[in-house]
């Protein structure tokens, strides 16, 4: 029997990582459909706008990553039962700007299925480059942003209570934190303290969302 859940997503999309993670955490099978980045009609037909992730279940379509996470966590016994911590939210906010400045140019160049056509890749570059500035400068090996991110990782290491869950028990903090670390894995030159390395590897296995380490640039 085919899975009752279909998830439409892009591999580089951090919101999509969040939606994918909950299926792995709960060991719930789902059909994966990776859309081309310039497919407008598909998402518009499903949810009225160009956005991913989208969950399809029994002919109904649900956008919004955290709505999908909470919906799937509610199937059977919930797993995201731990408390969240403001220190994690604050760390995520600090890391976001340097992370996306380095992440976007690398995503634009990566061998990912959502960029399988020239028009899909070119459209992504056209839309995203103005938001962070020239991709070529951000692709250099030593950037201010990389220094910032490596310093931020040193701050994060002592906040990790267990490789299995940042706060000791799985919570939505793990969903948000691993989505950041997943994006970070596309950036070469990032130095992971041991606690973070153990955490991101354990989360990748448990969520079923592979890191980008092998294609990092
Ligand atoms: N609030 C939404 C945001 C989703 C979102 O911004 N997705 C991006 C991809 S990372 C998107 O579809 N942007 C429109 C586009 O690519 O044209 C969520 O949490 O699911």
TrEMBL record:
Residues 3-80 form the GST N-terminal domain. InterPro entries: GLR_AS, Glutaredoxin2_C, Glutathione-S-Trfase_C_sf, Glutathione_S-Trfase_N, Grx2, Thioredoxin-like_sf. This is Glutaredoxin 2. It comes from Gluconobacter cerevisiae.
């Amino acid at each position: 029997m085919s899975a009752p859940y279909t998830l439409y997503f892009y591999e580089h999309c951090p919101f999509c990582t969040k939606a994918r993670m909950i299926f792995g955490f709960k060991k719930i099978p789902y059909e994966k459909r990776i859309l081309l980045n310039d497919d407008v009609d598909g998402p518009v037909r499903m949810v009225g706008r160009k956005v991913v992730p989208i969950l399809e279940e029994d002919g109904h379509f649900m956008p919004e990553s955290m709505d999908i996470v909470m919906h799937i966590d509610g199937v059977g016994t919930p797993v995201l039962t731990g408390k969240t911590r403001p220190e994690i939210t604050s760390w995520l906010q600090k890391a976001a700007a340097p992370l996306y400045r380095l992440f976007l140019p690398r995503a634009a160049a990566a061998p990912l299925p959502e960029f399988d056509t020239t028009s899909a890749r070119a459209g992504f570059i056209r839309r995203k480059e103005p938001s962070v500035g020239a991709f070529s400068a951000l692709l250099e090996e030593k950037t201010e942003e990389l220094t910032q991110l490596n310093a931020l990782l040193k701050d994060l290491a002592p906040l990790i209570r267990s490789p299995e869950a940042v706060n000791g028990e799985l919570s939505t903090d793990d969903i948000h934190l691993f989505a950041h670390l997943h994006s970070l894995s596309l950036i070469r030159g990032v130095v992971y303290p041991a606690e973070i390395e153990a955490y991101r590897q354990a989360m990748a296995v448990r969520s079923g969302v592979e890191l980008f380490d092998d294609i990092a640039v």
